[in-house]
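Q: I'm writing up a methods section and want to include an example of the input and output format. Could you take the sequence below and give the corresponding predicted structure tokens, formatted cleanly so I can copy it straight into the document?
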Amino acid sequence: MTETIDLSLYAKPEADGSQGMDLAVEGIACGACIGRIESAVKSLPGVTEARVNFTNRRLHVAWSDALTEPSQILRTLQDNGYRGHPFVALRAEQEEAAEARHLTRCLAVAGFAAMNIMLLSVSVWSGNVTDITPETRDFFHWASALIALPAAAYAGRPFFSSAWAALRARSMNMNVPISLGVILALGMSVVETANHAEHAYFDSAIMLLFFLLVGRTLDHAMRRKTRATAGNLAALRAETAHRFVGDEIVNVPLAVLKAGDRVLVRPGERVPADGEIIAGASEIDDSLITGETARRKIAAGSIVYAGSLNYSGALTLRVTAAGGSSLLDEIERLLEKAASAKSRTRRLADRAAAIYSPVVHLTAALTLAGWLLYGASAHDAIITAIAVLIITCPCALALAIPAVQVVASGVLFKRGIILNAGDAIERLAEIDTVIFDKTGTLTLPEPRVVNAADSEPVLAEMAARLALSSRHPLALALTREATSRAPFDNAVEEPGQGVRAIIDGAEARLGSASFCGVLAPVAGGASVSHIHFSHAGRTATFSITQRLRPDTIDTVQALRDLGFDLHILSGDRDGAVQPVAEALGIPQWHGSLNPAQKIAHIEALKAQGRRVLMVGDGLNDAPALASAHVSLSPISAADVTQAQADAVFLGERLAPVFDAVAISRRARALMMQNLWLAVIYNLIAVPVAIAGLVTPLIAAAAMSGSSVLVTLNALRAAQKSSEPQP
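A: Here is the clean output for your methods example:
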């Protein structure tokens, strides 16, 4: 029986009539990889284009009908040491990419216009002012207007459209005073130029847009980079299913499975969909779904869930009908409910804007009225009011939060933490309670050998190399002990029993006790599994279990030292949770919890005024992650869980949990400092502007200076975050 790979779901027509596909590629480490991958793929007959984007590690391939098997592209990547998976951009990512291009174009237009207008201004004032004729000055002012007006109309669209939407909704946001200041400055400049006035303020308006677009673009770039990384990770972890089509097995994406399909699940693979076993017997690991680490025996008639790991035998599965009755459907319902009930606290900058914007407008209006009552001309009163609007323009306030976020996000990324939410830093800084899942969170997601040092080194090495020829999960755990990655050429795997090979003239066996001739039972807890090895009369037994992450004890202690209240909520049985809780000194723990019960515990803590950080990895943790004040997930977590987490951390260490909290606390302190800097600046600058002592040009310069100040203060987030990790 043969097996093929069906990539038709991912192939899309190109403009020239060929077929194209995007692949997320794992293993791209440097610029040299680009040429290697492109050359290898282009060598395939029928491939018309192969282009690698080094920034997001994606490969775009286009081919003609001459390429009869697109799956050759994946095999070519694998032969060259890379791993590729079809990548499908989410609609949200496509929209963010379009917005990023729009912001970049706006920034480029504003920057180009600002430089040219400044050159014109310098040309006007580079010589003796008395030598410049009114005609020459007017010419330069009108030339500036021809540049500034269309540039502002295009570059200001992100602010104008947002301000208009807010006004239509009868609300205020940051973009309302920004838009008003820019429009009034430009309008007054046109009036001044038409009246042959000495000053115009086109450069002030365009420079204001340029600085604001710099902050907006940096903030958006951080969020887009995070989404692109998360999208790649999801694609690289995407699974397929071996579907029966007549006498052939077709490797298809999960998206094409439907109720009634028959699917083959081999040992070592995850169950691709909820269904009923119609042939075969095995043991499965449901820990990703329910948190229960003990394996469950299954046979024909048993119900299994998507994401469960098949241990022993090959299984034939009939996919059950959709309709909201699967475990994943139940989890998704809880997830949606928890997400909708989650507190919709506005971001810090938005809360400040709600107060700031009306005050700015009121101040400018009172300034205009005050100067008119004082007897000033309408011209002078309007100019003074515009100067107030510009000098109070929330550029510094708009940069206060994003600037710190960009710097802190970079520091977190270096520590192995990828943010999924723009306000995750603010919410991480507010927590007082940390809840951990056990399986895959406090413990490593994959089982490990715990007694390798007790066996003869020669036997341990032979067993580990023999394990390289097996797909069994226990064998995969043993392969991590091999110093050589070369499997034995004559190895043969017997499904459900083990793997054997001839080594040094004698048969070696790795697998079950009966298969290896080991008669004596081995003691161990319910969470400990054993794999046996025999060769030339010598035997070894390897105990395999999920171990604590290497720095779990130190990280938990560091969090306790910061004063956090610590809990463990696990779907695993009490007997497996209790030893871990005791080892970590966490007296508040609960086992055998389903997703709804985890949410109930979190809601009870929230009712007490607690702000909870939830750290989990299983599908059963996803609703709890959505319900918590803020959430973290390891990169080994299920895709649904990663999608709900506010941040994802990489590697085997638990220290990123501590780093995320500590760095976020420092970042929030800097955010508050920046907000206060913006307030103090306004307390000094606004009275000066109201007194009529500054022109709009000087007001724009002062506004720019405050923006530089908060940006420099934000850079301290990187300096303060260089302390030793726990």
